[in-house]
Amino acid sequence: MNFSTRAIHAGQEPDLETGAVNVPVYLTSTYAQESVGVVKFADYGRGDNPTRAALETVLASLEGGQFAIAFSSGLAATDSMLRTLSPGDRVMLSADAYGGTFRMLTKIFGPWGIATDVVDLSDVDAVASSWREGTKLVWAETPSNPWLRIADIATLADITHRHGAQLVVDNTFATPYLQTPLALGADVVMHSTTKYLGGHSDAIGGMLVTNDADLAARLKFFQYAVGAIPGPLDCYLIMRGIRTLAVRMDRHQENAARVAAMLVSHPNIERVWYPGLENHPNHKVALDQMRGFGGMVSVEVAGGAVRATQFVEKTKVFTLAESLGGVESLIEIPAQMTHMSTSGSLLEIPENLVRLSVGIEDAEDLLEDLHQALT
Ligand SMILES: *Cc1c(COP(=O)(O)O)cnc(C)c1O
Q: How far is 123 from 133, CA to CA, in rounded Å?
């Protein structure tokens, strides 16, 4: 079946007993046992929940994976994946990865004995030459955040597997509608379901998807034994978002392309970063591996931090806020907001960079808003 049909039906058959067309929100922490140790579905809510299972089923289907494991946030998913490593191992991380991923690796897993090498993963030669004894995991974010660089997933998977390591792709920006990393050779797909999958800025969640049964069993064990599980209502909200993912993404990228085109010719904008632009350094790779260019646009504002701050504070339709991927347009300054934890590091972002999460409002209103805020 095709994408939207799976988004709406996978794991979401009408309830057998009542015929309800929506998966019920199973608010239960425990389950009645038929006799000691004999259970119908599960024995305790941390281990399994039917609403959570439905969400895992639909996202596994969309990513083309056999196993999906849901977490209480994107970072909780990242944490469980990193727990598969041992002290002495190394992680190779995208040069402009999500700030929280970098923070977790350096502040939490660093002291625990996991080293991190920050590499521009869109540069295949840099990946090959930065490989170190002990590199066990490559953590790629593509499109990356906030530069929207594109890493060639199939090539990365090749290099990674030749070294006996595993490739994780953070697919939060692209979503499975635009890119399916497992089909390109990645071992694991990670999501912050908080963003486009949920799509309405009303729930926080994370997910790991894989076809590796042994790895899935370990991750499932971490979900249960560490306990960073999403609540059933959040699972329901994210699943409801997923049902409209395709139509939302179509509109997000249509609007983003128009915003990018307008900003390219604006005198107060020095540079626009959008993978759909022909002058984007990785445009060709994006064309090959993605089914669209997504809804995120980054720009460098002329006049430095002062003008960038004026710009983001003057918009009326674009809300000044962190996060992305909701129906509403958001605008932010990574150096002062989402990427503060990278200050002084190799991942530091220039002060005049502004990141736009282009929503699904009417394009004319978005263009007019950006126009007035830039003058
Ligand atoms: C938001 C985000 C995360 C972290 O997810 P949370 O749900 O906020 O914990 C990780 N990666 C990317 C690309 C993100 O945008």
A: 20
